[in-house]
Amino acid sequence: MRRIQISLLLFVIMLLFACGSKKSPTGGPEDTEKPSILSSMPAEYGDISSGIIEIDFSKAMDKSSLSNSVFFYPPIANRRISISRATMRIEIREKLQPDTYYYISLSNRIKDLRGNELDKAQTLIFKSGEPKAASLSGLIHYEKEEDKNSKIKVSVFSADSLLILMDDLSGSSYNFLALSPASYRLRAYMDKNLNGRYDTSIEPFFEDVVSITERGSMDISMVYEDTTLAQIKRVKQISTHELEIELSEEISKYDYMEILRQDSMEALTVIRQYLEGNILRVLTAKPDSSNYKLRLRNLKDIKGNISPESSISFRPTEFIDTIHPRVVEVSPRNG
Fold first, then answer.
1. Domains (ranges, CATH) in the chain?
2. Helix (H) or strand (E) holding 125
């Protein structure tokens, strides 16, 4: 009987250990939803003379992510920022400038308790008193048609390079309200690979300076950095006296051209030159059947890149000229 009791006791102990080794429930799918800003008190463009601003998020936020994630313009040195669940509280402990817009920018480095970043970097605008308002607007141009549906990350800086506001733009135009009359630097790029920075040559970029008093205007042109240099692709003989030179890209000008016979380095006389896009048409004296080298110097493309020199060898062909003459250029030009 005692042996049976001991066996039952061992069975119960083993059963308890087996139950204790079971894994805890996973709690459902992983939370990857990004938090967003829901509202603020006072509301945006409201007066903050009380020195207290509260910003409500869609989720509970991680207070340890606040470092280097909240920016003030004009700068506010004496302030305290705290987070309680989904509410950020900003206490301003210094005297505010009179009749001034205040910009509070929140970068997407701010995270919720699950480590999800803020859905987008953005700026909330408040005021102290009654500041004089100005605006900046314009059209958005895209070098590539495919970029028209992509978000543009825009930062506006003061003349002394302090961050004023951040925003995401899209579409064909933009309009920034509640700016103060001043000079600004606007910088824009597309973060196509989502790494949080501008990558040269693979992402379009724009930067320029503008001064505004009331209503300022400046178009944004999202273009890619072009570091390629224009080169001569081929030479085609149109007639005995006319050459058509095709370039690798459109150029705005070049400084010098020469056509030399390769065996004697004797120059072929150039009578007239006409540049149109990436095509250069040249009228020359009649060449012989020797090999020639055509050389262009300081080719400047439409993005300002300068190719110091490009050359190509060619051999004119002998043929009977049956092409009627045509007007290539008039000097001075008509009109």
1. 37-128 (2.60.40.1220), 134-222 (2.60.40.2100), 232-314 (2.60.40.1220)
2. strand 122-128
pTM above 0.70, yes or no: no
Q: With contact defined as beta carbons under 8 Å apart, do 277 and 234 qualify?
A: no
* Both tokens assigned to 29: 């799918």
**Residue 244 confidence class, pLDDT cut points 50, 70, 90:** very high
Residue 149 falls in which region: left (phi positive, over 0), alpha (psi -120 to 50) or beta: alpha
For residue 30, give every residue at least 6 positions away whose Cβ sits within 8 Å of its Cβ, in sequence order, or none: none
Closest among 198, 222, 203 to 139, alpha carbons compared: 222
Please enumerate in sequence order all residues whose Cβ is within 8 A of that of 94, keeping only pairs 6 or more positions apart, or say none: 76, 77, 78, 79
Phi then psi for residue 285, to 5 deg, are -65, 165
How does pLDDT run across 134-144, given as a tens digit for each residue?
A: 999 999 999 99
Among candidate residues 112, 107, 104, 114, the one with its CA nearest the CA of residue 83: 112
CA separation for the pair 173, 5 (Å, rounded): 85
The tens digit of pLDDT for each residue in 129-170 reads: 999 999 999 999 999 999 999 999 999 999 999 999 999 999
CB 226 within 8 A of CB 290: no
Q: Is 189 helix (H, G, I), strand (E, B) or coil?
A: strand
Strands (E), 129-254: 134-142, 152-158, 163-169, 173-179, 182-189, 205-212, 215-217, 220-222, 232-237, 242-247, 251-253
